Amino acid sequence: MEVLEEREELQLTPEDVLSLIISDDQETDEAEEEASVSSHEPDFDWSSIDTSHLPSSYKTNSWQEEELLQLADHFLQQYTHLCPDRKPLFIHPANECGVQKFVSTTVRPTLLPYPDMYHWSGCASFVCDYLIMEPLKCPITPPSSLYSPTTILKYQRGNCFDFTVLLCSLLIGAGYDAYCVHGYATLEMCSLDQTKELCPRLRKPPEVPEEEDPNKYTIKYPIEPQSKFVLQQKAKKEKETEPAQEEETEEEVVMEVEKPKRDPLHGLRVHAWVLVLSGKRKVPETFFINPFTGNPHSTTDECFLGIESIWNHRNYWVNMQDCRKGCKDLSFDLSDPFCWEIMFSESNEPSQLPTESPQKDTDDLVSDPSNALEQEEIDMSFEMPLSWVARIKVSCREYENPFSLGKKVILYDKAKLEKWAAYANSDGLVERLTVYTDSDYTEELEVKEWFKHREDLLYMREVNKQTQLITDHFRPGHPLLLKAHSYTSLEPETGHTVEFYHTARVDGLWKRFENAAEMTEHFVGREDFLHTRHTEFGEREKKMEKAGITADANPRPIVQIKEYFHRNPEKPADEDIEERIFMVIDDIIQLTYHLELHDTIASKVVFSRVIGREKREDEIFLSRENTVKYQPWSSEKHKNMLHLYNLLWELRAEQKELKQQVRDSEAEMLNILMVREDEEANIKLSVSVYSIAKRRQDHEATV
After folding, report:
1. Which structural domain range is residue 272 located in?
2. Structure pTM?
3. Which of 262, 290, 407, 687 is the most buried if burial means most Cβ atoms within 10 Å?
4. Region entry Disordered: which residue ranges (predicted)?
């Protein structure tokens, strides 16, 4: 199989590859080392590991395994004879004890007793977080050894093949139709360089296109006519702008020169990843999993350049398809002998090949008994031995603290993602995303932090470094019913926006904004159809401020209160108030009513104070001088003075209640700020009853 055209032209030995990398790609490798997660780690000496405690299955082969190796060698001889131009297959590398083991027997299907490990995303994220990536010694050849998943878990490091075998073992144990893949990939994928990729946390969900109404009776408007003269003038202008376009092309050429150099080993770099076929576990579509990142990829992804072979715990398949265009045209129907050459017949396994009817099988056995005996011997000889790997175990402490170095740092395009284990930080911080304005990671633009197990139910914090605006997000259940809180300082009256879980509040308040001059409240689902209340404040008395009196004792004077209402369909429009304004200082009340469908001008009523008359709370003076009304659509009974007099009495009473509600809202905001300041000063983390590792750690600390 020809993976790429470059593979035909370049026939390099490992020594040539190393010299090529040192001479041509020294700068590129330095960039890779900076971007790689494991670049700051010293090289681990695998020859110094202790293998004396390993079971006997690691050190010797059973007779089934010896027979399997002979069959694999026979298959390999036929393969090299029929396909002399193909690269050697990765079939039976040595394990940590130096014993050759067939790759399928290295896969140990295991289902770990953790809820997240029952899904492919949980398995993939655990493997990529728990293990430290080690590059292949030679980038164009597979490794000479393949250690057991138990040893890889013990030392928490490995190459792409080690990652893949461990992840495939967990996926098969969880019920997925997963396979290990030996193939070729790009430099960025093989070296775990994600500096050119967008951080997954920054990816926006795909927009759902609006479905057009397929109405064949819609009016089709004629195409707008175009003037030939105008088209000629546009053509002349385009000719005049051609020199400017040539200058732009020169600038583009300069930009292309600044782009990174093409990888001389493109199409030759060996990589291993996981293939998950559709069908089992209701997987709708076949996809790849990069074990280094745990991210899913489409089978048409251009980062995957070719496949040599795949295997699981039962069999081994060789790809017989052309990979000159990568993997996008490959068929993953493993039962197709023209696309995949299977090593062992799967006639006794009903999962891949279509089975014949039992009647036909019995007829064949009766007609030819010797054939039945021969078939039984073949099935016995091709039965895959059990895995030689011991049971894969992950303790609760290892599962809850997957980062061997305390944290993990991943560099993306103009972004840096940091991860910590739960309870590693005293404030419950488990993840931080820093977005930069440049690719050199110097100037911060935005910071997002995620928290776990906080008693104040804070789970995310966003910080805009340009405006210094902080937004805290809370889970349901906070004592103050907080959902989000935006601020620049926890000092009162400095600009705060608070969102609430309005379904848990009696008044239906879902958002409140307050600063020194105003306060705006938004409501949802109220019986009186109120949706917005806006309050304007005046300045406090300066004498009181100098005396050092608190804000509670020196409240801000209320200048104006505005309320807005939705339409109440049970009332006539000329009786249903849309806007209500209380000018407290000027003693003016203004009402604006809703419109009917055929109306153009809204009805209004304005009550103002009589000039020259002192205001008394227990007195209402109503005359035509202090009342302005415009109700063109109302009936005669709504135009008399008695109706206006009763309405003014109601408004005066509601104004008092509104002023008290505004004071209560101010007091609530002060209480929220006090509580939040205390929560940030004394952060407490809750320990789940299922967190065995944390409870043991706390118990050891107290003893």
Report:
1. 56-201+264-342
2. 0.77
3. 290
4. 21-48, 235-254, 349-370
